[in-house]
Amino acid sequence: MAESSRPVLLPQNRKIRHLQGIFLRNLTFDRPRGKTIDDSAFKHSPGKVESLRENAQLHHSASSENLRPGSARRRSTNLGNATPIVRQKHLEASIDKRVADVFFSLHVEGEEEPVYISETGERSANFDFRFFELSRALDPSRVRRHQVTVKVWALKSGTWSLHLEEVVDLRRLNFLGSLIGTHFPPNCLVFHLVDGAYTLELPAKTFPPRQGAAQPTSSYNALMRLSNLEHSIQDALATQDMLKQQINDLISSHSDEHLQLTNAEDRLRLTNKYITTEQRMVRSSIQQIEQLDTSIAERRDMISQGRSLMEKTGREVDNAMDKLRNDKDQCLKLKDEIRGQRRRICEDLNTIFKIEPLPDGKPLQFQICGIHLPNAEAYGGGMLSGAQEDELSAALGHVALLTKHLELYLSVPLPYPITHCGSRSYITDNISILKDPIRDFPLYLPRGGSAAQFRFDYGWFILNKDIETLCTAQGLKVMDIRHTLPNLKYLLYVCSAGSDELPERKKGGVRGLRAGIMRSRGVACLPDDATLGSLASSRRGSVDSDVPVAGGNDLRRKMMGELGGQAEGEVDGLSQVGSLPFQEEFGKMTLRTKGMRERVG
């Protein structure tokens, strides 16, 4: 802001709206004293009077010879030998005593809140705050006042406190003109108005009167003529307005009948137009009402139809719920009967295929139908005699037949289909990546060296995997799949266990099941009498009872030819046709190879 050499505003014309900024000079926190400190007050102090009373004694004067030279005066050398760090701390402490963070606020009488709050000046003793404009922040009645209250707030020792409060009358300010070379007293406030800097602490500067030439102006007569001319113009304008009003009143009092008729016709046309518009709107509303009535009637019909349909559906749902409850009860009853029949079948299978421990044998050594079958880990794969080979093949044939029956009666599809041919049974691996001619593995000791021996071992292994699948489906955990007969014995024992009595056999069930199996294999069935006769005359397990599966390799080739069109990996067709239509959940089956005999010879 440029500093002016002399004030422009008169003292009585200084208002709050002219205030533009405030500076603070020579900030100090020392309390002002009422008078200066000098020696005149020292002798009258209470401490000095008391000291004079105590030491009021007379002493003999001493000669110059007895006088000792006075000791050297102690000088303030506290910081003479101090380190730079101590000096720096002392300097910072002395500076902190004289500087602070400061801001000010302006208050006007009648306002509780401050009308302006300045920014905060940091660590200084002289503050030049930013300029402001109060004419926009306050209403005109406030900015026309002469008095304003200035409150200066200081931050000392981490606490804000009111440091200075002054009620300033702008009319009593003294003009400074320039701040350069001016010595300000402590805590001096400098006010910047539109014409320069003012303060209360310093006396006002005197300025010589301005010397200027007289300006030429009009004469008195010319000014009077202009005044008379202005009055004449004002009278003419007033007369013109009066004449306009009189003319308008005269026209309004003497209106023409033709004009009234024209106005009436215009109003009539406008009224007819409004009537036509309203009639059109009424017809449109009537059509809309008719459409709504038709729509409401249709909706009522649809609602009635929906209600009747809903009631009908509700009755059907009630009937279906009754039927569903009956079906559920029948299903539960049928499941109980199936479980009972399975228990009975497992009990019959346990009676037919007698799996008993060997007398005077090792633990976990069993025999089936009186034929000893060693466990897979006990079988060493060494040289066996012909009788021992036949015994082993016959035992595996019984195991294959029992496993096949359990697959059908328990409705558990086996991953490796079994084809029972007595002591020449074999098992098929449709899962592994093998060539089609070598997917059948024998369950009897073949002739052909180590390769044939390995095929026999693998066939026995996947037979044990089928037994493991049956056990897993019943929730049983197999500890060692190489224990063929112990696992079967355990499975039959669990499946035949129960507290209820075993149900009786239903008549005609076996004949129909056997006929269905024969038809699925493509074998012509004999009449009922012949079938009964053949079944009655043949012994179970003999050649006559195995007529459908006789033929060995020929029958096998025939069956493989029929199943050649099926996709690789499907379950065997006999298992699909002969299985019971009850698929229950069973445990997860793994294809791990642990349990296959690895030691050969």
TrEMBL record:
Region (Disordered): 59-81
Recorded GO MF terms: SNARE binding
Coiled-coil spans in chain: 310-337
Keywords: Coiled coil
Protein name per UniProt: Autophagy-related protein 14
Lineage top rank: taxon: Eukaryota
Recorded family membership: Belongs to the ATG14 family.
Cellular-component GO terms for this entry: endosome; lytic vacuole; protein-containing complex
Origin species: Gnomoniopsis smithogilvyi
GO BP terms, alphabetized: SNARE complex assembly
UniProt xrefs under InterPro entries: UV_resistance/autophagy_Atg14 (IPR018791)
